[in-house]
Design goal:
115 residues, alpha+beta, Aminopeptidase
Amino acid sequence: MFPDPHRTAQAFAAYADDPTRLIFSWNVDGEMVSAAGVQVSGNAAEVLQIGTAAHLRGQGYGRDLLHANRTHIGVMTLSADTDDQAVEFYRQSGFEIVALPSAWATARFRCTLSC
């Protein structure tokens, strides 16, 4: 979603009409540095999208945003399905990782953060 403003605007619009979908941003000195979209269902939420500005990756903004989201929403479980390019981000953010069957050439993983 970052750094393309058009993609960011499209992502925001997709959440406008669905009360189960929420989008959050992490801002530093008035600049949005990370954003995440989640879908809430009962006591769980699924990360649908997450992105951090390229020049600020690796500084913990995405991780902090996900943990703050889980606390703010008040869910017991936050999960994401991802590929092998992003699984290490979730592992380093405290998520438990389970490999999923995949119909694609790339590996897929279920990442779960629980209270």
